[in-house]
Amino acid sequence: MKSRRIFMTMVCLLMCLASYSTYGDLQPRFPGGEEALMAFIEKEMKYPDESVKYGEQGRVVIEFTVDKKGNIVNPRVIRTATPLLDREALRIISKMPRWLPGKRDWMYVDMKYILPIIFSLDEAAPKLEKRSHSNIDPSKIVKQWPSFPGGDMALQDFINREMDYLPAAMRKGDQGKVIVRFLIDSKGNVVKPRIYKGISSSIDREALRIVSKMPRWKPAKMLNGKTAEHWWTIVINFDFTPIG
Fold this sequence. Notes:
- The protein has helices at 2-18, 34-44, 49-53, 83-94, 121-132, 152-162, 167-172, 201-212; strands at residues 58-66, 72-79, 102-104, 107-109, 111-119, 142-144, 176-184, 190-197, 220-222, 227-228, 230-238.
- By secondary structure, it is of the alpha+beta class.
- The strands form four sheets. The protein has a three-stranded antiparallel beta sheet with strand order 2-1-5. A three-stranded antiparallel beta sheet has the order 6-9-10.
- A hairpin with a 2-residue loop joins strand 3 (102-104) and strand 4.
- The model is unreliable at 1-24 (pLDDT under 50).
């Protein structure tokens, strides 16, 4: 039932985002429809080892053109997650077969399309575990990923409450996403935070300060039932409106 809800959510996302494509009588379509597209993405996705190590997940949104022959051309990331996941999303797009091209006034035309690709460690866990069995060590296979107390929504609420909007950064118009990596030890403590992708020195310091204020997380649990330290990655969005 859970997988069914996830699938329907992704289909809704696809249909909503596709509405932003160039208008036409008929939008481009993956051969077999949306369900076949989801199956292709799931089969083709190869979660990068480095992303698993650092707990990277999120949604990458790709824009591309389906030309009048159904070829995918000029794919580009318009919403990023992390560099590794962005590259994997583009790789998946590059492996796609020809689409059914869009039509306008009954003629095949080049048409833009927007596609979100969701990277979720929870959803990828069965495939990752199977991949690890070639040289299995139960102490090194994650059964349960680290989690902020209360879940992802609680984490976002914490960041929003803790964030200090810096006057200097607001005046300069510095804004964007800071990617922070940190280690969650076997007791759930957040240690060794570091900037993976920054904006400016003042905003980067604020991102590190927010992470330093976090309560204990629920630590990772391995296949052997023991808790263990695990690297994690989060994105903190600083969206300032410049003063004056």
